[in-house]
Each structure stands twice: as structure tokens, then as C-alpha cells.
Amino acid sequence: MLLLVFYAVVAAVVAQNDKPTAKSVTPHREQFRVIYEWRSVDFEWESPDDRESYLNTSSYIPKNVLISGINFYGDNLYMTLPRMLNGVPATLAMIPAFQNETTAPKLKPFPSWAQNKLGDCAALQFVQNIEIDRNSIMWILDNGRVGTLTPKPDSKCPPSIVLIDLKTGNNEMERIPLPGDIVNPNTTYLNDLVVDNRDGDYAYITDNSAVDPGIIVFRRSDKKIWKLRDKRSMSSVPEATLFRINGTTVNLPVNVDGIALGPQFRTEDQTIDRTVYYCPLSSYHMYAINASILRNESLGEQGDGALQPYVVDLGTKTSQTDGMKMDSTGILFYGLIGNSTIAEWNTTTDFRTGQRTIARDPNYIQWVDRFTFDDRGNIYVMVNRLFNFVKNQVSIEEVNYRILRSHTGLKSYIYGEDLSPPSGPGHQHGGAAVPTIAASILLLLFSHILV
Ligand SMILES: *[C@@H]1O[C@H](CO)[C@@H](O)[C@H](O)[C@H]1NC(C)=O
Ligand SMILES: *[C@@H]1O[C@H](CO)[C@@H](O)[C@H](O)[C@H]1NC(C)=O
Ligand SMILES: *[C@@H]1O[C@H](CO)[C@@H](O)[C@H](O)[C@H]1NC(C)=O
Ligand SMILES: *[C@@H]1O[C@H](CO)[C@@H](O)[C@H](O)[C@H]1NC(C)=O
Ligand SMILES: *[C@@H]1O[C@H](CO)[C@@H](O)[C@H](O)[C@H]1NC(C)=O
Ligand SMILES: *[C@@H]1O[C@H](CO)[C@@H](O)[C@H](O)[C@H]1NC(C)=O
Ligand SMILES: *[C@@H]1O[C@H](CO)[C@@H](O)[C@H](O)[C@H]1NC(C)=O
Ligand SMILES: *[C@@H]1O[C@H](CO)[C@@H](O)[C@H](O)[C@H]1NC(C)=O
């Protein structure tokens, strides 16, 4: 009955006014469209009285509810609502991904209202991001600490990884508290994660703790964790702490934040590896490291510097990036906050010349927070004007949260191809030369374009 209003985002597919490098061929993509937008977040309450009593007791303060992360599963979009301020009644919730009734659907707490209860350590407290793997396991990062933007953050519960097997339908939560000697409950900030479904399932998690940033590795098979540090690539840098967007300037020195996982590849000695990409929020650089290095527990014990020989600085972006997302073939999507831009990079090309603008709009693209893919070839972008939130200048008379969608024909890195392990000693030296030749052709191609 009701029409869903779609606003076309004025997407500059390969913006004409970009640098010369943007002239090379970019596959045509459908423009991004707004599918949902909210001035403030409201919920599906258990009764109208509940909404009123939550409002009466300041347990629900509409302008304090920020939408941050987004993930797709089974025709639903799951969204995270980190409890940075007071008055956030639930920290994880869902909406239908496809419906025609409203542009501002009410959020349904997930798994339930009870499992989002503030102060109950069996329930979710502060979820910044989640991932859903290829076996339908939802991996939830619960920091346990709430009020992170208030003068008195409260470490209510231990930082934990919470797993839910979505296949079963009963949404039972398996909570794994992280050991205090590795993850300090007062300072850790479990920000984002990628899941690597092999050899017992690993999560690589960015911890943007202001005092001890790093990448935490969690192995699901034995629930073991370790933390790897590299100050040089995981810390904010002074020249990138200022964010200028929509007439507002914010100073945010935030450490390692976005993380993405590339497709499997075979190394010279025929082992299988993957590249992990990451960047601090307050930095212009993109970094890469091989997953096999992160999975080496002994590097966790060696402290800062142990990782340094293995970290590659891929080069710079024109602005800062919050979340990013890889597809199954190695195409990386990320935001450029100060440029109101969504960008992509084919990771088989040189980062310095291979970045492409796929959408730019100063009104609709105000702080890209996170991305997700669905199972029909669409990519979704969560835009949340975070600069207004951290400056405490959110106006609920304006649209603050938008979900944009575009058809790309791609799917998440989660569904990347599994390479078969080496079959025998006969294959020791095959294939290695091929990528080298391909890479040099690619470089020639780019130097030609650059002339
Ligand atoms: C909320 O507060 C109003 C005004 O004080 C009061 O009339 C109402 O009964 C309260 N509602 C609930 C559900 O507590
Ligand atoms: C929404 O509307 C479109 C066009 O009218 C229709 O094709 C689609 O099936 C509808 N989707 C749902 C979930 O109702
Ligand atoms: C965390 O902070 C609380 C309260 O200030 C303190 O009692 C506790 O010792 C701290 N824990 C750690 C691991 O620093
Ligand atoms: C990962 O390992 C491969 C094979 O050993 C190597 O060629 C590549 O440079 C490494 N990548 C990074 C980011 O260090
Ligand atoms: C892990 O790192 C240590 C210390 O650098 C090194 O000696 C060891 O060979 C590495 N293990 C693997 C499996 O790569
Ligand atoms: C992108 O944003 C940065 C600030 O983050 C600014 O210095 C730069 O000029 C912008 N570039 C373009 C092409 O808009
Ligand atoms: C990425 O680059 C590789 C090598 O140039 C190419 O084969 C592939 O088609 C590209 N992917 C996309 C989606 O353009
Ligand atoms: C900020 O964004 C709003 C909403 O798109 C727009 O109406 C306003 O003009 C923008 N302000 C500035 C200073 O860019």
C-alpha cells in the first residue's frame, strides 16, 4: 500500500574531476540509493507502557541511540547500538532488509529485550560490531563497558566474545569472557572483526584502546586469545586527528579501527595464506599483514615491535576511514570521511594508483561507518554522522542515520573460495612465477595510464 520513497544519491561513478588515475576503466555500478533513514531510533517495544516507562526513567533517550555496525543474514539487517551514552535500551537489534512499508522501521532487539538488559552480565552490554560467518555463527564483540563517551565509563561486565548459532533458531548465546591479563576491561575497545573460517575458526579483532592498541586474535576451537601490537601502524597520528565534515570539525585521536580480510592465496612454498588489511581511524595510511603472522601466538608474547618486520604500509588515502569491507574476490570498499566519499580498491592492483571513487555526496554520505553484503549481490552502507554524536550536537529534527544500497553483483569475503591444501611434493615449485608476471603487466599498465 505505502510506497517506499527512494532518493537517488548523486553518485559520481568515477568522478570526472578526480585525479588522472581515476580515468581507467571501472566496472559500471548501480548508483547508491537510500533504503532506510531515521531521525532517531525507535524500537518494537513489548508494550506501549514499556516505551513510556523507559522514557520516564531516562532508560531510553532517543537522541543518544547511535546506529553503528550493520550485518546481513537471512533477509534481515542486524545493527549495533553501542552504549556510548546513557539511555540506550538495547545494543543489538534487527530490521527486515526487504520491505515496502516504512522508510524508518522500528528496531527489534536481538536476541531479545532480556538479552540486552543493562547491567546483566549474561546479557549484551556494549556491542560495537558483529560478523556472521559462513556457518551462520554470529560473532559479537561485547566490550562490557558502557558510557564510553560520558565522564564516567562503567566496566559493568568483562569484555567478551559472544557466539550465537543462527541456524538453530533458539538464539542461545555462548559467552566467552576474555582474560583480564590480555584484555584490560577498563581500557580495551573491541572495535571490529573479520572471521577466518579455517583450522578451527579465527577472529582478527581491532582493539583501539587509547593506551594499548592492537589486534586481538581469537581461536574458536580452543577459545584461546592473544594480542599483537605495532605502535607505528596501529596508532593514530597527529596529522590525521582532525575531521572536517558538514561544517563541523572534530578532534578524534582514534587508533586501529577498520579491518578487512582478503581471499586465500598460495605462497611460494604452497601454504595457504590471506592478507589482513587494517587502518587506524585517525590516519591516512592503509596497512597489510599476512594472517599467518597474526596466527603465530608467540609473536603476541614478544610485545610491541614483534610485528614490525611483517607490516606493509600500502600507501595513503585522501582522507580517514572508519569501517571497510572486502568482497570474496579481493575488492575492498571503504569510506573517505573528509571527502564524503565511498571508495573501492581492487587489491590485486597497487594501492597508490588503484583506488576509485564510486560515490560522493556531501549530504547523503556524512561519515561512512560500516558496510555489509547481502546474498543477492547488494552492498549496504551505514552512514551515521558520528561527528555530530561525539560533539553532542545531534538534532532529531534532521535525518541522522541512513542505509544506502547498491547492486554490485559481489558477495562478502566470508564466501571466498577455499583453496585446496597442497596435494603432494610434486607441486613444490609450480605457479609462483605466474603472479609475478601478472603483477608486472599490471604495473606497466598503470605507468602507461599515468604518463
Ligand atoms: C510516566 O510519567 C508520567 C508523568 O509523570 C506519568 O503520568 C506516567 O504514568 C508515567 N508512565 C509510566 C509507564 O510510568
Ligand atoms: C516491494 O515492492 C516491489 C515493487 O512494488 C515488489 O516487487 C516487491 O516484491 C515488494 N517487496 C516486498 C518485500 O513486499
Ligand atoms: C578497573 O577499574 C576499576 C575501578 O576503577 C579498578 O578497581 C580495577 O582494578 C581496574 N582493573 C584493571 C585491570 O585495571
Ligand atoms: C605475505 O606472504 C607472501 C608469501 O610469503 C608475500 O609474498 C607477501 O609479501 C606477504 N604479504 C604481506 C602483506 O606481508
Ligand atoms: C612464529 O614466530 C616465531 C618468532 O618470531 C618464529 O620463531 C616461528 O618460526 C614462527 N612460527 C611460525 C609457525 O611461523
Ligand atoms: C579529502 O579530504 C581531505 C581531508 O580529510 C582533504 O585534505 C582533501 O583535500 C580532500 N580531497 C578531495 C579531493 O576532496
Ligand atoms: C581486479 O583486478 C584483477 C586483475 O587486474 C582482474 O582480473 C579482476 O577482474 C578485477 N576485479 C574486478 C571486480 O574488477
Ligand atoms: C550539513 O548537512 C545538512 C544535511 O544534509 C545540510 O542541510 C546542511 O546544509 C549541511 N551544512 C553544511 C555547513 O554543509
Automatic annotation (TrEMBL):
<keyword id="KW-0964">Secreted</keyword>
<feature type="signal peptide">
    <location>
        <begin position="1"/>
        <end position="15"/>
    </location>
</feature>
<dbReference type="InterPro" id="IPR011042">
    <property type="entry name" value="6-blade_b-propeller_TolB-like"/>
</dbReference>
<dbReference type="InterPro" id="IPR017996">
    <property type="entry name" value="MRJP/yellow-related"/>
</dbReference>
<comment type="similarity">
    <text>Belongs to the major royal jelly protein family.</text>
</comment>
<dbReference type="GO" id="GO:0005576">
    <property type="term" value="C:extracellular region"/>
</dbReference>
<dbReference type="Pfam" id="PF03022">
    <property type="entry name" value="MRJP"/>
</dbReference>
<protein>
    <recommendedName>
        <fullName>Yellow-x</fullName>
    </recommendedName>
</protein>
<keyword id="KW-0732">Signal</keyword>
